Amino acid sequence: MIPSKTPKVLKQFFSTYAWDFASKKENTLYLTFDDGPIPEVTEFVLEQLSKYNAKGTFFCIGDNIRRHPDIFDKIISQEHAVGNHTMNHLKAWKTNSEIYLKNIMDCEQIIEKYAGNQNKPTLFRPPYGQISYSKFKVLEKLGYKIILWDVLSKDWESNTSPETCLQYVLQNTEPGSIIVFHDSLKASKNLTYALPRVLEHFTKKGFLFEAISA
Ligand SMILES: [Zn+2]
To answer: What CATH number does residue 96 fall under?
Structure first.
């Protein structure tokens, strides 16, 4: 089973990847949204973030940007950060390096096409959290930072209830945590319940939500 809180030992062992920014700022949290952009769900997320003056980081699938450039444009114009999540959501451990890296480059190109060169993506989140050392070394050379996570909402799991999803986040979040949600159809039931409550809970406690900077 995938833990909703990333164990410390794992973070220490793979310390070249970013799991959290605990050392950076005490009262800051980093919300991340994977697998969009899509109509309605991504738009719901944007509305919620703007209500709380929060910034997030969207790890976009290139093919979804291609299909919904208008929604991608809203993410950019509202000054959230975007990262590369491959063109077709590939599994690193099942894909040879050449195909995998080409798929990342395809996503990079489409991000640059719609976001402009100044928004060249430098953040990468591997689908399923799968990355190998050899692929990491190539990405590092290309200037990418690998962003993993500290807290998983498990919003996509059909056997996780909305309230359980919310509790995963409330109970596991610490200052500097990187929290994963999904702006996908699969996750929308849990996301639409948990996200507004997470924003409200931590805003009341004095936390700020910031985008991950390159
Ligand atoms: Zn994903």
So the answer is: 3.20.20.370
